[in-house]
Fold each of these.
Amino acid sequence: MRPFTLHEPTSAAEASALLLERGEAARLYAGGTELLLAMKGGFLPCDHMVNVKTIPGMDAIALDGGALVIGAAATHAAIVRAPIVRERFSLVAQVERRVANVRVRNVGTLAGNLCFAEPHSDPAALLLLYDAEAAVEGASGERRIPIADLQTGPYETALEPGEVMTAIRVRPLPNDARAAYLKFGIHHRPTIGVGAMLRVVDGVVAEARLSLGSVPPMARRLLEAEALLVGERAERLNAESSAVAAAGDAAAAQADAVDDLHGSAEYKRHLVGVFVRRAIAQAAA
Ligand SMILES: Cc1cc2nc3c(=O)[nH]c(=O)nc-3n(C[C@H](O)[C@H](O)[C@H](O)COP(=O)(O)OP(=O)(O)OC[C@H]3O[C@@H](n4cnc5c(N)ncnc54)[C@H](O)[C@@H]3O)c2cc1C
C-alpha cells in the first residue's frame, strides 16, 4: 500500500476543511475495513486519511427526543452492546449482531457501511423500515438526508464534497408495529436481506413496509408488494396466505436482480419471493 499522511481532526468542521483542501487525494477513515481493502487493491488512491474517530463524541450512542442517535464513529459491536439499542431498538441490535464477522464488527462502523454504499449492506435495507436520517456536516453547515435518499447508486452517495456524516438518527417504530429482518448469504456479505414492518390496528394491517437489500444495485422499498398487504388480517399472513404469496411474487418482479458471484438473476428472484414471504409471516406473528 502506498504511504499516506494520517490527519487527526478534533471537529467535523476541521475534518471537512481537510477534505476540501486536499480534494480527491483525501478520504475519511473510520474503521478502515472497506477503505483499506480498496486502497490495497489500488482502487482508491489516497494520500491523506482523515480519521473521524479522533473527533470527541463521534462514537456516542444516545437518545434524543425518542430517536436513537448513533455517532458516525460508533462500531457495529458498540451498537450491539449499547443497552438503549438492545432495549428500545432490538431489531437494530439483532441485525447489527449479524453484520460481517467479529473482527469487522469490532472496528467497522455503521456510518462507514452506509457511506461506502456497497450494494450488499444489511443496515441500508433495515433502516428503510425506520424513518432514519443521516446527519451530515460540511462547508455550508449541517443538514439531514433521509436514509432512502442517501445512496444514489452502487458506491455512490448524496454526500457533497467535504461533507462528513456525523450521526445516524433512527426514529422508533410506531407502538403498533411488528417487524422482522431476514438475511441469507453464501459469501462474507449478504446475498439477500429483507425487512418487513407491519402496523396492525384492530388485527388488520394499516401500513406495511418491505425493504430489499443486496439483490438490487441499492436497497429499496417494495411498494407494490406492500400495497397487497394493507387491509389484510395479520393473523392470516402466514405461509398459506394468498396475499403473502402475491406479495412475494410482486417483490420478485421488482427485484432488479443480476447474474453475479452470488448466483444467477433467476436464482435471486426465487430467493426474493421466498424471503419476502417468510419476513412478512415472521413480522405478522
Ligand atoms: C469480510 C467482510 C464481511 C462483511 N459482511 C457484511 C455483512 O454481512 N453485512 C453488511 O451489511 N456489511 C458487511 N460488511 C461491510 C462492513 O459493514 C463495513 O466494512 C464496515 O461497516 C465499514 O465501516 P468502516 O468504519 O470500516 O468504514 P471505512 O472503511 O473506514 O470507510 C468506508 C467508506 O466510508 C467513508 N466514511 C467513513 N466514515 C465516514 C463519515 N463519517 N462520513 C463520510 N464518509 C465516511 C470512507 O471514506 C470510505 O469511503 C462486511 C465487510 C467485510 C470486510
Amino acid sequence: MQTLDRDRLEQLIRAEEELFHQSHPKSFELYQRARQSLHGGVPMLWMIRWAGSFPVFVREAHGAHFTDVDGHDYIDFCLGDTGAMTGHAPAATVKAVRDQLEKGTTLMLPFEDVIAVGEELQRRFGLPLWQFALTATDANRFVLRMARMITGRPKVLVFNYCYHGSVDETFIILDEEGTPMSRPNNMGPQVDPIYTTKVIEFNDIAALETALSAGDVAAVLAEPVMTNIGIIHPDPGYHEELRKLTRKYGTLLVIDETHTICAGPGGYTAAHGLKPDFLTLGKPIAGGIPASIYGFTREVADRFDQMLVKDDSDVGGIGGTLAGNALSIAAMRATFEQVLTPEFYAKAFDLQDEFTAGVEAVIQEFGLPWIVKRLGNRSEYWFRPTPPKNGGQAAAAVDHELDRYMHLFALNRGILMTPFHNMALISPETTHADVDHHTRVFREAVVSLIG
Ligand SMILES: Cc1ncc(COP(=O)(O)O)c(C=O)c1O
C-alpha cells in the first residue's frame, strides 16, 4: 500500500460514520440537547474534533475502560491524553480525595501534606524547590515569567510544532521557507508570537547556537522528547549540547515533562540525568484531579527572590487562588506515593512492548510505509517510512483523512485512541486481551484500506 486510494478512503469513512451514527443514538440525542446550552455542544470547542460526527457521551470510567450512554464498553488508549495515565479512578487517589473532601478543600493556607509532596518531588526530579498550579499550561506560563524577570531578556525559544498547552508565546511555527509565523488558527493573540518567540527545529544544534548567541533569549521551553507531533527522540548528544549552549549564553532551560512522565517515575529528566533550571509537569500527577507543579534550582530562586517585591507578589502575574488547594495536594500525595510507582511503570512498559510489537507486525506483514515510535508506556504510529528528526518533517506526514478513518474504525470497535494523534497510552490496568483486541482491529483497518 505505497499509495492510498483516496476515493476508497472517502467511501470507507462514510460507511464508518454511518455505523457510528446508528450505534450511538443516545450520545446523538444528548449532543442535540447539549447544543442548546453549550457552544458547539461540547465543554471545550476542540472536542468537536473527535473522530465521530458528534462526541461519545461517557457514563463512567474505571481502570483502562469506560462505558458510554449507549452501553458500549471501550478500551481507553487515550487516557485523557495523559491526564488519566494512572487508569481512571485509581483507588488510592479516590480514597485520599474522599477523605480530604470532608476536611476542607481550599483555604489559601498550607496543609502538612504539601511538604510530603515537595520532598517527593525533590527525590523524583532532583530539583530543590517547588511551587504548585492547576494546569501544565499555567506551570509553563509562570516559569516563563520567572525566566524573563530574572534574566531581563524578552524572548523565549521553542521548537517547531511544539505544544505546551495554551501558552501564548508557543503558538509559532516555521513556514515552508523556514520563516517564523504565527501558528494557523492562533486565536486572538495579544501579541504576534514572532515578537516574543524564536522558533527552530528540534535536533538542530547550529540553529540553536545562532538563536541563543544574540543574548536575548530568557528561556528555552522544551519537551525532552517531542510528543505532540508524533514522538520525536533527541539525537544522541542533543541534550548535552542543549544544556551546554543554554549555559554558555545565559539562557534558562525549562523541561516540560507533562507527557514525558510516561518515561519513568522521574520522567525523562531522571531517566536520562538531565539538569534543567526549571521543570514543569501537570496532567496525571493527581490521578485526574487538576494539579500541576513547577520546580527550579536554588540559583533561580535566589535571583528571583532578590527581585521580588513581596507586597505585590499576589498581583504580579503568577498566581491562582485555587493553586495548591488541599484536594489537589491530597490527590497528588496519594498518586505519587501509591500509584505512579516503579511497579506501575514496569507493568505498563511490558504491556506497551506487546502493543508496539503488535502494530509493528501488521506494518511488516503488509509492507506499509509507516513507523511506530515509542517512549515508555506511550507509542504512536505515523504515516511515513522513517522516523522524523524534527517537527517540520513530522508535520509534513500528517494525513488528517487517514487519521480520522483509523480512529473512527477503532472507535466503532470499542477502542479509543488519542485524538489528533495515533497515540496509545497504556496503564497497568490495560490487559493483554485489550492489547490483542487493538492489534486485531488495527489489522482489520489496514485490510479494509487495501481492499
Ligand atoms: C507537553 C505539554 N505541556 C503542557 C500541556 C498543557 O496541559 P494542560 O492542557 O493540562 O494545561 C500539554 C497538553 O497537552 C502538553 O502536551
